Amino acid sequence: MSEQNNGLNAANEDNTPHPNYWRSFESLYNDPTVIEAKAHEFKAGVTDDFSPSGLSSISRRKFIALLGASAALAGTSCTDYRDKGEIVPYNVKPEEITVGKPNYYASTCTACPNACGILIKTREGRPIKIDGNPDHPVNKGKICAKGQANILNLYDPERVKTPQKNIDSSFTEVSWKDADNEIITALGLADKGEIALISHTIVSPTMLKVIEDFKTKYPTTKLYSYELFNDSVKNSAWRKTHGSGNYPLLKWDEAKIILSLESDFLGTEENKVENSRMYSQNRDVDNKKFTRLYCADSSLTITGINSDYRLRIDPAAQLEFVLSLTNEIVQKGNITSAINASNYDLNSFAKKYNLDSKILNHLVSDLISNKGKSIITAGNALSENVHIAVNLLNDALGNKNLFRTDASSVTLVEHSAVGEFEELVQKMNNGSVAVIVNIDCNPVYHFAKDLGFEKALSKVPLSVTLTERFNETTAVTNYTLPLSHNFESWGDAQVRTNVISLQQPVISPIHKTRQKESIFLTWISGKSDSFTEYLYLSYLKNNWEKNIYPTLNSKINFEKFWLGALHDGIVETNSSAIVSGEINSGTFDLAKDEQRKSEGLTLIIKENYSLGDGRFAHNGWLQELPHPVSKATWDNYAALSEKTCKDFGLKDNDLIEVKVENRKLILPVFMQAGTADNVIVVESGYGRTNSGIVATGVGFNVNSLLSAKSDLSPWIYNNASITKTGDKYLVATTQEHHAFDDPLVQDLHIIRKIIQEGTVTQYLKNPSFIKENNTEQLPSVSNPYPYNGVKWGMAIDLNKCTGCGDCIVACDVENNIPVVGKDQVLKSREMQWLRIDRYYSGSPDNPKVSVQPMLCQHCDQAPCENVCPVVATTHSPDGLNQMTYNRCVGTRYCSNNCPYKVRRFNFYNFRDHFRDSYQENPILALMHNPEVTVRSRGVMEKCTFCVQRISEAKADATHQKRNLKGSDVTTACQDSCGSNAIYFGDINDKESEFYKYRNHELGYYVLEELNVKPNVTYIAKLRNIHSEEV
Amino acid sequence: MNIDYSQEAPLIAGRLKLAQIEELIAKPMDTRPDRKYYIALSISVTALLIGAVSLGLTFYYGIGLWGNNQPVGWAFEIVNFVFWVGIGHAGTLISAILFLLRQKWRTGIARFAEAMTIFAVMCAGIFPAIHTGRPWLDGYLLPYPNQHGLWVNFTSPLLWDVFAVTTYFTVSLVFWYVGLIPDFGSLRDRTTSKIKKTIYSIFSLGWRHSNRHWSHYEKAYMLLAGFATPLVLSVHTIVSFDFAVSIIPGWHTTIFPPYFVAGAIFSGFAMVVTVLIFVRKIFDLQNIITIDHLEKMNKVILLTGMMVGYAYSMEFFIAWYSGVQAESFLFLTRAFGPYAWAYWIMISCNVLIPQLFWFRKIRRSVPLMLIIVIFVNVGMWFERFVITVTSLNRDFLPSSWAYFIPTLYDFGLLIGSFGLFFTLVILFTKSLPVVSISEVKAVADGAQPAHHGGAHHE
């Protein structure tokens, strides 16, 4: 006992910690082995034979292992929706690429025969955005919706990827070599039969040379070219009145008075980009320069909605109208005309068609008093007689001053006449056509059915279609050879006398495709293995060196010249307009055949704004781009006036059968305000039967109403009739339409000051009339944020905006906006961040139309921001209303509280939802702008003022050690706007161009009385009419 | 009619003995469920499953399955939420406010109304959680410290909602449970089943009916009643802020808080009456839940119905009087625009039909009152529909207007919420006393013998 006590005391004296409880003497006396052993959980050797696999199935360790594993698996598998695959870095950095920095290449757009110059933005070798080439004298840095959306064509998952042989209507993949061999053999044997080449307009001089070489090699070749919508009638009329050349280009920017007869020069005719720019220069508030636009047309077009005065005229009555007008002018203005129109009286014409005589009087006096400063332009669809009459009237008024002398249009190959095609079909039928090659065109879809082309095609021994994607023609031809896209090909183009542009590839062919010129060169060589990647490049270069370079009198050597030309994308030719001769003397008798036939309706077929003649039907962005006037998407329809609808007992969305002679088409009715009575207006491009999952079955094929034996013109037919089928078909529009006579909703846009307008006279008298009835600025109860640095803002000049919608597609491309499809548009869930609101006022027959681009207003006191429960939408110090997608849970409260309703919600993962996850195809991911997040389901999104561009400009400014300036940034919509209606910049920069618009006397905010302090200023539209009140 | 106003009318009819009361109330728990019970349960569970399937598909595909569109960001899901929160108001009002006001007639219906409150708030609570675009991230709505350093936005009424509804639910649940403790004690003492005994024992928290227990219990109950009372007013006030704080015409109105509270009590009482009519019949509780109870509730319905009607007309007046174009347009378009049908359903169900309760005969006729309260239920659902959808579908810019058309999934979820509610109600009737045994005993004849001569003395 005492020994133990001693022991304890000893331990205490040792000053060593002694355990309160001890299990053994070793422990008590702090034996080092015990201390050592305590540091380990198990005694040495105890765990040696422990093996988890040997344990029973429910051991603790195994249980925990399984628990951990399943938790990890559950955790990782649930995050799958964010998994976008691997990111592979460059192993060896390509010289010209800096990761994260875009490269730009100049090229030429081949989306339509206008061949505008483009700048292609590429990131890490992928083209991602198209802008206009600022150096190009025609489009000057702007490009239309089709040109922008062309990027989707490149990455379209439904492109033809390899050559295909059609055996008994089923396609088999073949090699280029086999296909070429068979075709070359057939071409070689065709020494008696004709080789027919069918193409759209040929704009490339070198392509033309390839075809000439082809003709030399295969002498039985004949080239046919066509365009569904063309200006051939206009040009042939020109030649009749002026002898030679093409209809001249016009000085839209200098005309005091423009009278447009069924002409949509701001929409579908000629080069709309150039026309919009020149026209809008003439609606310039700052230079107080205002043209007056009269429209006399059958339906509301972009030109029509921008007109100051509009007359509804049946297209079949246009000749009568022009002649009556001529007579009136001749009589009142003491003018002589080469035409004798004394039988026509404007007053009785006005009475007959119920036209406003006040407008007619203004028109006559304006034309007389602006001799030499007015333009009368007739639409391409009108008959030759109308064009002749218009040419004569222009001449009588001395308007040839307004014909441009700097350039005129160039036609490399005349379009084939209908007669030539009839002959071709005849030859096909009697077996004298050996080979037919459709060069990037779709004649089976485009040609009038009564031409019998499709049937005749089966009698041709070998038919080949060169195309980017399957279409109605590939379905009935033997070979389908895949073409490289615009951005994968070399080329050149000349559509104007003063400029030739160059086309260069920016990506090597994604699929096993070849460009059409290379295919022809291979065939010319007669050896299938002669194809190389550079086959056409060397040919092109050679042609330029031999044939084009010498004509340009360049002082530098060819190699330098060539690289410079490629860099610039254009070469100016020094040659100006081809001046047409004086007007032919002699008189014209035009009245013989044209009269509006009293019985029946008039059918007019128009080119669709976004799909064109159907070439862009597979392009979702364009399908979803709302029609500038009707706001319809994904469909065409028969536009009828309110009165015509009443006469036939029709309502919106009723299916009707339109019949012309024995040609029929069933399509829905759309009651379109402003349509002429007794006229059926149908747009083309829809009703594709073999155009992939996006376009097939969308809309109605109006080409089935076309006839090879054209009536008034290939696009205007008398004696059409309508029968109601009793069925319904919903047309998806992005704007509800309301009855004009509903007092509840009438003119709300004016009452609420969403649209503020005035007249030119009013403005010249009192420049700040808009500000006069403004609500008083209310004092703020809180201290507003000072915004001392750069603060972003936008100004939109409604005098210049034509409402075309090109900016919408630019925004789509820049910001990776998904296509949602017709079903979602019907549910009002379109995703476009930018929209063009269209408002009608006045009567349904002669509505006054106002358009307004509407996007996030980036309000200083944004109502969306304070209601978001998770702070997903906030304000930046430079005045942006921001969205944090990652934080957004999708309560949609912000959207509810947005007075402008510009927020867009991802109701689905739209990329997955649309057409069986068409947009989830990995190839489409290449198209995305890498600077913009691809939004997932359940997230709110909206216009960001292109914040990615602001960040880039900021980084550049920092890099260059200078301050960021407002003019360093342009938004995508601004870049695309052909009429330069959009300005963007720093609100605080008093020196800037933008500042002028921000504080313009005509500037106003939409819904100003809400005091949300928007940062988008609208410049009120002025109408150039004779009265002071709108 | 000779009514003796000097004496309080008996709250329990039929001169039941205390033991009979306990017997009567505890009977559903002592007996096995019958066929009718299973039929009722299967109907409500079917409805619940319809909702579950709709919800599952919604989670899988996204809320694009619903009819919501670009201007109408909120539709059925928020309508249902406000509707169910409103239903949840009667319970706390009856149990807390009427308790504080010493309204003894509440005892017969308080338990049931409280249970309905909890079930209704459960139904309501589901909707804000599922209406988000990414429901798996709903946690972002809670202020919790996180590695992102992100906090919630305290200026957003939706966040206030989260707090208001969770607080209300928690307090209601505690209040309900505390009230149940003595009954759990009684049930524990009655039952012979071992399992039941264990369960009741756990939930009775060792209740021994001792004097000390009773005195603690009553203090706690009083305190909780005091605590719950402001919540009755606050919850629907805050729910109304979801709308009132916004700037959308038709939402941005200061009348909303009182109007919503009145509407909530209106709809809550209507729902309580609807369900009680069946419960008292099926479980033979006519003597405990008497026609007097129902009549009193009908009076409240009449009163609150008129308050709601007043609010409707005042909204119109203010819309005109304010001179704000968008506001006056909105109210006209409600009454005469595309959703006029919904508006007039609302007016007729909420304002016109309850006027029949001016007649005593109708107030005391079970079949007639059933018809009227069902109309009120429908009307109050439409009131929320009118507020939510008609305001959104035609706001400031006519270019963005769009008509909302509900889809099958919207209806599926609405049906599912009713399924959930009635499933819980049906399960409740068989597992817990639908009437408070202890409270009813306390107000039964002879339960509290009064000494002659008035004041109680030591």
Task: Describe, in plain words, how this protein is organized in 3D.
The complex is a heterodimer of chains A (1030) and B (458). Chain A is an alpha/beta fold. Chain A has five domains: 37 residues, no CATH class; 193 residues, Rossmann fold (3-Layer(aba) Sandwich), CATH 3.40.50; 171 residues, Dimethylsulfoxide Reductase, domain 2; 133 residues, Barwin-like endoglucanases; 265 residues, 2-Layer Sandwich (Alpha-Beta Plaits). Chain A is 29% helix and 18% strand. Chain A has a seven-stranded mixed β-sheet with strand order 5-4-16-15-14-6-7, with helices on both faces. In chain A, strand 23 and strand 24 form a beta hairpin. In chain A, helix 11 runs parallel beside helix 14. The N terminus of chain A is likely disordered. Helix content of chain B is 69%, strand content 0%. In chain B, helix 5 packs across helix 6, helix 6 crosses helix 7 and helix 10 packs across helix 11. Chain B is globular, with a radius of gyration of 23 Å. Chains A and B meet through helix 24, strand 30, helix 29, helix 30 and strand 34 of A and helix 6 and helix 11 of B.
Short description:
The complex is a heterodimer of chains A (1030) and B (458). With 1030 residues, chain A is α/β, with parallel strands linked by helices.
Question: Which features characterize this protein?
Answer:
A: 1030 residues; alpha/beta; Rossmann fold; Dimethylsulfoxide Reductase, domain 2; 5 domains; seven-stranded mixed beta sheet; six-stranded mixed barrel; 39 strands; 29% helix; disordered N terminus; B: 458 residues; mainly alpha
